[in-house]
Task: structure prediction
Amino acid sequence: MIRAPFQFPAALHYFPMKMTHRIFAFSLLIASLLFSVAVGSAATPAANHKYLVFVGTYTTKTESKGIYAYEFDSDAGKLAPKGVAAETPDPSWVAVHPSGKFLYAANEAGKSSTVSAFAIDAKSGKLTLLNQLPALGEDPCYLSFDKTGKYVFVANYTSGNIVVFPIGADGKLGTATANVHDEGKLGPNQERQEASHAHWIEVESTGGMGSFVYVADLGLDRVLTYQFHSAKGELSGPTVFSTYSNRKFDPSAKLSPGTGPRHGVFSTAGERMYVLGELNSTVTVFHMMGTDDFVPTAFQQISALPDGFNGHNDAAEIALHPSGNFLYTSNRGSDTVAVFNVERRGGRLKLSANVPTGGKEPRHFAIDPSGNYLLAENQLSNNIAVFKIDPAKGGLTPTGQVVEVPSPVNIAFLPED
Result:
């Protein structure tokens, strides 16, 4: 789960700088207290934690039928199959609605791509199709929701545009309220950065001022920032007006040329953003506050590859452990999960291990909500491998459980009642 950052940038433009620093310090204090509570809670194991797990797959030229359902016991670390949840073409990204009643899938099929809405049967794990709409772009690869659960955001990779669909009370998708194409200077990789390629989209709420949507564009070497107007579901930007400096500016995060940002994740208190570069297999760490107009500023870029690895590699997924102490990324090429320790105060990363995933092409992985296990999906070896997470050091130990599933590429969790 990607956590939203602290209010940025609009809300801060209405406060004097001293007041801003006080608010920031107070937010850090609250985050520290929450972390202490989380650590204390983790020391007492719960009686039982079970989750429905939905696995998105590629169906083209594979034996997959669509979305598969499993039950995961986070006390025992066991993943038990429940069968095909829904037959649907190439559901490469699946996302469970905040209500837990619905699931949405990005059906990645070029110009014929769609977004599908399903109702969830929590007992059986079966999905019932509610409706399906054109994605209004090519190859949707990431879905997320606004804070109210009234809208779903879609990142279309090949066409480089982002789309907003409203969600009805019955879970059905409505007519799109926004469709914006990413614009900017292209990166130097002529094969992969020949055009804009939206690859990740997440929203951050700023209370009464509205929300900001962050979009990692692999082709532009930037994480763009759009303002989201929830009343009508519209987007504007990425240029915004700052009342603090009385000028227009672009609050997007800029990465080094050829990085190819794929996914990102925010620190617990939102003061930092970690961005995974698919093309150069790095993580870039940004300060989100405290600079001119609060434009994200990079202060570290670190490799996610094992020492001595010289082959081709495409970085794929990034996730922060619920404790905030560890960060993980996956490597398609070295076929490992990189384990980073997160510096407690400054947020800098230190690579501590590269753990083989026991398969080929780990396109995605997910940390279960308890923070006890990591599930790695090996797309080309058709399996999901379960790893135990060391709560003290963040290390990964294979449990020995490997579940067969055709072409797994995404996982979404839903707590069982």
